[in-house]
Model the fold of this input.
Amino acid sequence: MTAAEDTRVAVPRPPTPTPAPVRTPDPPRRRRTPLTPYTLLLPAILILLVALGYPLVWQLVTSLQHFGLAQQFGKPADFVWFENYITLFTDPYTWVVVGRSIAFCLVTAAVTVVIGIGMALLMNAVHKAIRIILQIALLLAWAMPVVAAMTVWNWLFDWRRGVVNYLLTAGGLDFQDHNWLQNPLSFFFVAMVIVTWMSVPFVAFSVYAGLTQVSSEVVEAAQMDGARGWQRLRYIILPIIRPVLGIVLLLQIIWDLRVFAQIKLLQDKGSIASETNLLGTYIYQLGVGSSDFAMASAVSVFVLLLTVALSWFYVRHLLTEDES
Done:
């Protein structure tokens, strides 16, 4: 052994680190759902299910039966399943009424919303005193009962002593003894005027409430940037109140599709029912007029599905915005 080997000092090795124990995560605790809100909502949900669910189920079951006048007095109703629907959809007159109703509700709803937006913009622009007068006038028109309003409108469009014929004739037009309710086209024009007049207040107040939420600073900034009145309305005001406009238009389409009282009272004044029927009066004619309650129920179920189809696009858009 050499001297160099004797002088070497053994260096101790560092201890091998022991791995830290792996800690398993605690299982996630289940979040307790508060039951108080659902308990408070339960009575209202039960009332809605009883008030709306029972008539809907009854109509659906009746539409699958042979239900006439005898069944109203206790005779058992026989199930015919989808025979009523086959008869309904193979009748060309049904599709005439459906097309007529869709056209009437779309045109009337569009006119109502346009006039309602104009009235809301007017209330937002005028002095407070004038705005109060306009609001009172709209409230009076909205609060007037349908039968009372139709009495006034029937007198205005009366073909013998009507104010409308008198004013048009005095203006140089040949409307002497013109019967507005005899021609289907002029009949629906009168009906559109009446339905629009009774629906504009709701649209005007709803849109005016939306206009009060539009920031005046944003409008003033756009005005300083050179945006004109129409440009401010189109690119700033209308996009801000678009949710209000969408809901109002949806409600108007649903209401105008199911309109009944105005059309029925106009028909009773002297028009031909078969040429002026909409879905509401068609259901009434089948049920009360012909005592065919099964067919009337089938048309009612079809109207419900048609209403869902017409409003599904906007409802789907609302659900998409809610998820995002």
